[in-house]
Here is the input.
Amino acid sequence: MMHGFIPPQRYFAYLTWQQIEALPDKAHVVIVQPMGAIEQHGPHLPLAVDAAIATAVLGKALTQLPEALPAYALPPLYYGKSNEHWHFPGTITLSAETLRQILLESAASLYRAGFRKLIWLNAHGGQPQVLDMAARDLHQTHPDLMVFPHFVWNVPNPAAELLTPKELELGIHAGDAETSLMLSILPDQVQPDQAVCEYPHGLPTDGLLSMEGALPFAWVTRDLTRSGVLGDATVATVAKGDRLLAALADGWVRVIEAVHRFQQPAAWRDEPHPDESLKTRPPEPPPP
Here is the structure.
């Protein structure tokens, strides 16, 4: 079925236009766009890992969400900006410009229909910066549109308990966490006998520059790994994946509830501050 992991009653694409038109208080309905990528994940995992994780976590969260809270999942956005992996066959990548335009135009369509709260639930680590910039551009164009560019792993989860310190730091792609989660959600698509352990090659040892962090260097995946894996997939287990999935889903229930309650700050609408130095404020933006 088209909805896959998503509860059918929460699947936006199953609604008719009349049902969407009749939705009450659309400004507070939460729309969630699951986002991933189609890119290599080593010899043991399918190309669809990121899209599968985003959709499975969202589906479990929506199953647990109180029925009275209005929230709908859009069809997954499977393709992303994956050019760091494009030397590996099977990877399909959009440019940053194309991904940004898809995000802007799909959000504009939702805005036209009356929706004002949009979560981008992203599971691909190669594109958060594109989401951040697109979200700000959308909010600048539509001041009453609230956009939340979020990464699936950023809710509380037990990764620190389940993974080694080395894996937590360097296991960023197709390692223990992603493999364990895939064993939980799509076990038939995992090939454990092909799992490898490979950590990044040739990282700086000066303690200043790093692969990811405050002072990163630009890289593509083949610079760091031959197999396409960055981490230890050989120690992944279903039990770890079950714990990660449960925690991530619980966290996303809380995020969706928080977005439903959220009101956009608008200091420009407030009364002037009694401090004379703060009385000057920018003019009210023109209507969209």
In short: The two ends are 38 Å apart (CA to CA). Residues 238-261 form the longest helix (24 residues). The domain at 8-265 is CATH 3.40.50.10310 (Rossmann fold). The chain has one domain: 8-265.
